[in-house]
Give the backbone structure.
Amino acid sequence: MECPLLQARAAPTLFGNEIDGNVGEVVRTPNQVVYFWPSLTDPEKTLLRDAFWQIQRRTCLRFEEQEYKPWFHADRWDAARPYILVRKSKKYAAYSEGTVESTVGRTILYVSEASFNMNSYNHSRGAIMDQLVRFMGLKREIYRPDAPSYIQPIGAGQTLSRAPQFHAAQLEWPFDPESITVPLWARDIYTLTEYCPARNSADIGAGQRVGLLTRWDTIKLNSMYCPGQIVADADPHRGPCVVPRQKDLDEFRRRAWAYKRLHNNWN
């Protein structure tokens, strides 16, 4: 007799140009020219710069910050240099793209104000990095088509709110419960299934909590923008759910044997 699984649930999102929009193709370049809106404070700019640096040091993505210039300045009318204007939003992370006077591409990236006011610096950096990588095309791992095999809600009656279209390069690599795209609060309402024995439920959302890309975040982003920079030992069959850390090896073996005995009893 098989144990029934609850239907997976993901965080609700808004329709339109929200960061989790239903776009499955990468339409950006790995190099982005960035201006900060003048209302951003120095601590907020520091967080943004740190988030940029953490992404840049492990991927081929580049965020080229420019000194703020008013809209009529010549540098903001260079057709060969489309740019991002970073602002705060009191409601949610979103973006608005367009061409100014049919001349230069401009994207206004709204970073949620709440992300600057987390309980710790690392949490804030992680929340901002999450919004940046999703703006660049990475989707939340908990929305993946195969996510219900590895992660389930703790409570009953939850449903998957939506399934954005993933870029094929992201789905070529395994599910990652620690991804920077998994929300800080996810471990409070989700648990890992028996198909993810190499990680603990406490590891859910670890990347965003510490404000760092995971190894698999790096591989997925580089697969999308610079496939030649993927590490040689990256194996899609040896993801975080099946390969334990050295310190967790004994616990992994215990779980594997327990699952094997349970499976044999069902049969």
User: Anything to note?
Assistant: Residues 31-135 form a domain with the Chitobiase; domain 2 fold (CATH 3.30.379). The longest strand covers residues 104-112. DSSP finds seven helices and seven strands in the chain. Helices lie at 42-56, 121-135, 168-171, 186-189, 206-210, 215-225, 249-266.
